[in-house]
Automatic annotation (TrEMBL):
NCBIfam families found in the cross-reference section: HAD-SF-IA-v1 (TIGR01549), YjjG_YfnB (TIGR02254)
Protein name as it appears in the record: HAD hydrolase family
Keyword Transcription regulation recorded: no
Entry keyword set: Hydrolase
One Gene Ontology MF term: 5'-nucleotidase activity
Pfam family of the protein (one): HAD_2
Keyword Hydrolase attributed: yes
Organism taxonomic ancestry: Bacteria, Fusobacteriati, Fusobacteriota, Fusobacteriia, Fusobacteriales
Length: 238
């Protein structure tokens, strides 16, 4: 199949979101003075911090799933996750201020996978390339603009700016309209999320490739056209 347009997800497909999240979370807590409480040993503070971070990730993951299912909007998500850990752990922080600081630090986190730049350069030499993401707009713009792959991305399509989240086909159709690509058979969606990326691509009627870098078992019933477990495997497909 000769493709004209490749749409690709950002987090956990091109960028290591776990590293981005860990870096931003620690910098946020450092800035808030969490580790500077007098009378408590550093080892104990680190132990408490790890418990909070673990719980935050659980809450955040569920909220992003709720977003994909249309149960919550992004403005609420970005603050609610901090409201919950503040309440659960009795932290004396302002959830809105904490959220704003975290997003700033998140936008500074650029951690591409080893093959990301080479892959993007290759794709850009053959296809129109659009990054399609559900991420928060100011964060994603900052990370792309401060990365080495910016010059290889023709369009950054962010759900917040389009008004539709993956897996809603509207965001994929928006990208196709932007590039002037009408033939669905000439479009491929590449991403790590079976629901947001693969189901979203299928909802739109375009081919899909699941980037399964963590080698997880697929028990969802969502079957992509292709599956890769390393980014370099995409060179054989595209």
């Amino acid at each position: 199949m000769k493709y004209e347009l490749v749409l690709i997800d950002l987090d956990d497909t091109l960028f290591d979101y776990s590293k981005t999240e860990d870096s931003a979370f620690r910098k946020t807590f450092e800035k808030m003075g969490f580790f500077e409480v007098s009378g408590i040993k550093r080892e104990k503070m680190e132990e408490n911090y790890e418990k909070i971070k673990k719980r935050y990730k659980e809450i955040n993951l569920q909220l992003w799933k709720d977003l994909e299912n249309g149960k919550i909007d992004k403005d609420r998500l970005r603050v609610l996750r901090f409201e919950r850990i503040i309440e659960e752990f009795g932290l004396r922080y302002d959830s809105i201020g904490m959220s704003e600081l975290y997003l700033k630090k998140l936008g500074e986190g650029v951690f591409p996978f080893e093959m990301t730049e080479k892959l993007c350069e290759y794709l850009h030499s053959k296809y129109k390339v659009g990054v399609v993401t559900n991420g928060i707009k100011e964060v994603q713009h900052s990370r792309i603009e401060n990365s080495e792959i910016a010059k290889y991305i023709d369009k950054l399509v962010i759900s917040e700016e389009v008004g539709a989240n993956k897996p809603d086909k509207k965001i994929f159709e928006y990208a196709m309209d932007y590039f002037g690509v009408l033939d669905k058979k000439s479009v491929m969606m590449v991403g790590d999320s079976l629901v947001a990326d693969i189901k979203g691509g299928q909802n739109t009627g375009i081919d899909t490739c699941w980037v399964n870098l963590k080698n997880i078992e697929n028990n969802t019933g969502i079957v992509p056209k292709y599956e890769v477990k390393k980014l370099e495997e995409l060179f054989k497909i595209l």
